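FORM 7B: Structural annotation worksheet

SECTION A. Query
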Amino acid sequence: MRKRERERELRLLDELKQAEIANVVTRGLNPDVPMKDSGIPWIGQIPAHWTTRRIKYLFKEEDEKNTDLSFQLLTFSRKKGIIPFSDANEKAPSASDLSNYKVIRPGQLLENRMQAWSGMFAKSEIEGCVSPDYSVFSAMSDDICVDFFAHLFRTNQYIAHWANLSRGVGEGFNRLYTNQFHSVYALFPPIEEQKAIVDYIQQKNSAIDEMIANLRAEIDFLTEYKQRLIADVVTGQIKVV
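SECTION B. Predicted structure
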C-alpha cells in the first residue's frame, strides 16, 4: 500500500511540474498580465505584449554530416535528454556507418521527428552526432532563447498540434517533417522574459526534482525490502505461522 501511495505521489508531482511549465511558457510569470486573443484558435489567449512568429523565422534546419567520423554518437532519452550513446547503452551502436549521421552542437535544438507528437524536443548541451531521422535546428537571431522554445514545444498544447501535423504509415511511425514544423506559429515573448521564464523553470524544477528523487529512492527501497522479505520466507529464514 505504501509503495502505491508513493507511486501516486510521484505521478502527481510530475503532473504538477509539467502543468507549471506549461502555464509559464504560455502565460508568462505575471498572473495579472493583460491578455489578448492570439488570433490562432488552438493557441487562444496570450499576454498582450507577446507576439507570435512562424517557426521558420525562428529556427533554420542544419544538415552537417559526420563525414570524417570525428563526432561521438549521442542518443536522445526522454528522461535524461541528449546524452552520449555510451552512457545509455553497454553495447556498441547497431549502425556500422555513422558518416551519414547529423552533427549537433551545444545550443542547437534537436527534434526526434518520429516522436515529435510526444514532445521529443530538447536543447543540446554537448557536441556529437545523431540519427539521420532527427532534425537539428539553429536559432536565427539573438532574441531567441532555445531553452524557452524547447519547453514550449513540449507542452500538451503543442504536442497535440504536432500529432495533427505528423504524417506516416501508422501509430508510432508518424514523422513531423520540417515544412510542417516551420509552418506552425510559436509564442514569442521578449528575450528578457524568455530567459526569466527559463530561470524560473530551472529553479522550480530543481525543488520538484529533489522531491521526485527522494520518492523514487523510497520506492526502490520498498521494492527491495519486499523482494528480500519474499526470499527470506521462501528460503525458510522467516517462519510463517
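SECTION C. Observations
The chain has a mean pLDDT of 86. The radius of gyration is 22 Å.

SECTION D. Sign-off
Analyst initials: ____
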